[in-house]
Design goal:
There is one protein chain. By secondary structure, this protein is of the alpha/beta class. The chain contains 4 helices and 5 strands, in the order E-E-H-E-H-E-H-H-E. The chain has a single domain, classed as STAS domain (Transcription Regulator spoIIAA, 2-Layer Sandwich), CATH 3.30.750.24. Strands 1-2-3-4-5 form a 5-stranded mixed sheet. Strand 2, helix 1 and strand 3 form a beta-alpha-beta unit. About 7% of the residues have low confidence.
Length: 111
């Protein structure tokens, strides 16, 4: 079972909420992931972090949820950063071009 936790860790402006995901982001979890991403973007003022350190697998449904959230964040003027994806996910993000759409950070980007 995938667990999705929203953590609000403030930076200097208290504007960088973080979403911590553990498990697999597949067709079965994509709707729940998308809802959590929408809430994350809604709470963000200038930026937000999607921490994928605990995710072992992401499929096209999970990627689609990320892209929808990125589009909403961009419309709102919010930078969405993907944090700590596995090496396998980094390769997927590179192959799909996601790494050119939004920042992908290996280190702690939540402030």
């Amino acid at each position: 079972m995938t667990t999705i936790e929203t953590a609000y860790r403030c930076d200097a402006s208290c504007a960088r909420p973080a979403l911590h995901v553990h498990g697999d982001l597949d067709l079965f979890e994509a709707d729940r992931f998308g809802i959590a991403l929408t809430r994350l973007v809604d709470q963000a003022v200038d930026g937000c972090v999607v921490n994928l350190a605990g995710v072992g697998f992401i499929d096209s449904a999970g990627i689609h949820a990320l892209l929808r959230a990125h589009s909403a964040a961009k419309t709102k003027g919010v930078e969405m950063v993907i944090q700590a994806p596995s090496a396998r996910m980094k390769r997927v993000f590179e192959a799909s071009g996601i790494d050119h759409l939004m920042p992908v950070a290996s280190a702690d980007a939540s402030g």
